[in-house]
Structures are given as structure tokens and as C-alpha cells.
Fold:
Amino acid sequence: QYPLVLIDDSYHDIVASLWRHDADLERGYLLMSQSHGNGRIWRWERGGGPIPIGKTLAMDPSGCRSKPCISENSGSGGLAVDFFKHDNYRQGCLVVAEWGEGRIVKLEEGTGARTPLVINVPDACKHASSRPRRVERPKSMLYTPTGDLLFMESTTSSCSTVMRLNQAVHVAPLESAMTSRVAHKWNETLHDHSIDVLYRDTNLGSMALDSKGEGLYVNVQRSDDSVLLVYLSLLEDDDGDDDDDKGTSQVSDTRMGLLYDAAIVKFNLTDAGVHEAPEAMAVDESGNVFLAISSGFLVLNEEMEILGKLDTPTPITSLTLGEDKFLYITTSTQLLRIRVRQGPPKLPTNLVKRNKYFVK
Structure:
């Protein structure tokens, strides 16, 4: 067993992390999002030689550039990479949830413009006829191999959602940094890409794609306090009923989201002594699932058998697998890592659907 190594303990309110590949460097690096203050994004990397480059400040501020900020939670949250037109799923434009601005933006390569992707979202936790509301605090975000952006929000103590910005990779970029400064005042986006409520439940902790990018794992805490790992197929069947996996029992409660009825219970975490939906999750190339729990993290194989457990000194806020075959672990103030046998999945980048939207 490899040791758990503390890298740095000088951070403040780290809530999310991401591995980003750099083709010019022929390696990648870790990015960490800070919710404290107006937000910062930190970068940690090891250079090509024996001496680590270590910690550097990648973006400041990262959550609020306006005066005053729209939200009291003015830092940044979830991070993702728009891989469009790249061969590596982890290479491309950085996407940031700006909690202070109440939006999700894409940082355009070359111009530095911040293209608003999400500002308003369906108010799925209220009546179906409710008007759209401002996006609040997305903590978990990812792109599907087909080019959609998925993001998770918890708006109340009894309602959390996974939403989908359809064909997000095709959202037209803003032309300049000057235009993006004007966009700070926007109350809606200029594109007409639809946003669906993909999944809704009582309390959602985190999400991750499976090793093939064909489905989504979601950590759920139900109204009866059961804690479950459920699976949502993202494949479209010929008959349109999302019934790819018939091997386990289906969730049969009242429909709450587009894929709620198709959610497959993969693992009952309550039986393993877990009483809250894990706030962080990662999946490796072999399909093993790493799940943060209150005292550390569990490792499950693809058959949902427990392979092991590792304790950490404080609660985990994010788990990220690096291409260097380390599992990077953040707490609110710390960055740790441990050597693992498999890196992150090598997901396809050639499945993006043709653009069906037009710029307004």
C-alpha cells in the first residue's frame, strides 16, 4: 500500500479540483477552486525533472469581478474543461462556476474572454410553472463525451438537481475580453441552448462519469436518510427508454427529473456505515470508484465490491485522478495525494453531436 502524502496545508476553503492536460508541456497539472473571499484558483504541478514546481496562483479573483457581487458566496465553485476540437478529454478551455457572479463561464483560449454559458436555470425545486432563477452554487461540473455540460446544484435542504446544458461545446464564444466585461451585467445568456433538469433528488453529494463516459454515478441521500450510489445511463436507446442496464433494481418513486425513473441503485452506502451523501467522487480507467466519506474514502470496484478504505485527517472536499497516476485529495485547507495503479479514464472526444443551435 502506498502512503498518503500531505503536499500543502496553506489553502482556504477549497471546494473543487480538476486535472487539466497541457499538450505543449506534454503533461498535466491540478487546479483547485477556492470559495473564500472573491475566489482564487490554485495550480499545483510537478515539473519534468526531479524538482517540483509546486503551488502557484492561476487566477485571482475567480468568483467575483463585479462590485458588488451578486451572491454572498462570492468565490468560485466547480471546474470543468471544454475539450472540443482537442484529442485529449482533459485539454481545452477552462470552465468555472463563478458563485459571486451567479453564472458559469468558459475562459476562451487566446482572447481571455469569459463567455457566459449558464446564468438562469429551471427552478426545478418548485412548481413546474415557476419562472427560471439565477444559478447559485454549482460545485460539481463535467462534460459528457457528446458535448453536454452537466452541473450539480443544491438549492434547498430537501432538493438537489443535476442539470444539463445541451451541446455546450457549441456555444459561440465572446469575441474579446472587452465584450466579456460588458457581459457582467447580463441577466441572461445570448445563446439559446436548452437547459434540462437531468436528475433531481433530496440531497445530492457528487457525480462522476463511468470509465467509458456512457453513464453517470451520483451520490444520493434520500428523504428516508438512506445513502445510495445510483447510476444514470446517458446512452439513448433506439426505443428511447434508457434501459441499457437491467441487472439491478430500479428506483420507482415519483418522477422527479428526466432520468429519475431510470436511476439504478448500484450500492447502498448506508449498509457500509455512510450517513451523508459523499461530497466527492472519482472513477479510474478500470472502473473503480473512489468515494469520499466523513473519515476518509472508500474504493469500490466496477462490481461494487469494497476494495478498501483509507482514513484522512479531515473531511474531503474533492477527489481528482491525475494522468500521473496519483489520486489528489483536497480538504478545506489541505492538498494530499496517494499513488494509485490506474489514472483517469481515456474518454473519447469524437462523439460530439452536430450543432443544432444558432446564435441570437
